[in-house]
Please model this.
Amino acid sequence: MKTWPVGMIGGAPGAFMGDVHRRALALSGQFSLVAGCLSRHPQQALAAGRALGLAPERTYADWAQMARAEAARPDGIALAIIVTPNDTHLPVAAAFLAAGIPVLCEKPLALTLEQAQHFASRFTAKANDMVMAYTYSGYAMVREARRLVQAGALGAIRNIQVEYLQDWLGNADSNGGWRLDPQTGGAGGCLGDIGTHAFHLAEFVSGLQCQSLSARVSRLVPGRAVPDDAQLQLRFSHAAIGSLWVSQVATGCGNGLRLRLYGEKAGLEWKQEQPDTLALSTMDGRTTHTARGGSAVLTPSFLPRGHPEGYLEAFARLYSDTARLLGGLDAPLLPRLAAGVRGLGFVEAALQSGARDGAWTMLRT
Model:
């Protein structure tokens, strides 16, 4: 099996997302981290490179220099992984794409839809070289849910309910860091941080696109500069309706991402905190719980049934698909640049609707 050399921008040891990506890289078994610009502070970047065993000449203090140097090397990186704060996603991605290096980028793609659209116009020819880290589309049973919808197991979709609930920002003194700074994390707050995940999940599994929404956007902790809770009604293509609730102040919730789809024939439910099972319910009162890895499940797994898969395996599945992409093979389930732009369209529409007391607002992408 080919091993692809990769570089990471941001994500020094101890940074949550950097550590997660490195574990997922290792779990996939198809990548080797050989270069990095792991901090915007030069001395910290060099120390982080040493801690990860990177060669000194491939430990960079400047990401623009890294893009130029790696593109010039015969053994340069095949993929740039961006795990920086949100405000630098686009300039870093632009530097590497312009240098001919594909990118896997954390979400959201940008701070605003206008920025994302300009970027997408500039890199139209490289849209398939840009992967967005919508992690939850990598869960085996999320992909199985998508397959069941496409196979007609639910019939025509009528209603989509999705929620993503956390409580880690529930106190006024919660350390949200740059995520609570609109200049660095964006004006969307929880909408950009985790709402984009819920939005992408709903569209990914249902196969439908949200066309308009009505939002109540709140700052439930006094003094916040960005939203920490939002409740939205959604209108999808094919006359489907739905709702989305996203909160980082929902007391008692760790990472409560849940998706429910209701069709003419059946309803389906998936919960991220119990990710190995899908529940399919019908009007005759029966509910079938299908376990990942079972003989009825056509979506491949890393592990046999009864051996739990979770967040890291979902990330590793995105990386395995990315390895296929780098090798010139098909990877149709990978979220690409267009998904990143749609995420910013969702955030913009929600903020505009919330500012107009929930007025129905069309999504622009």
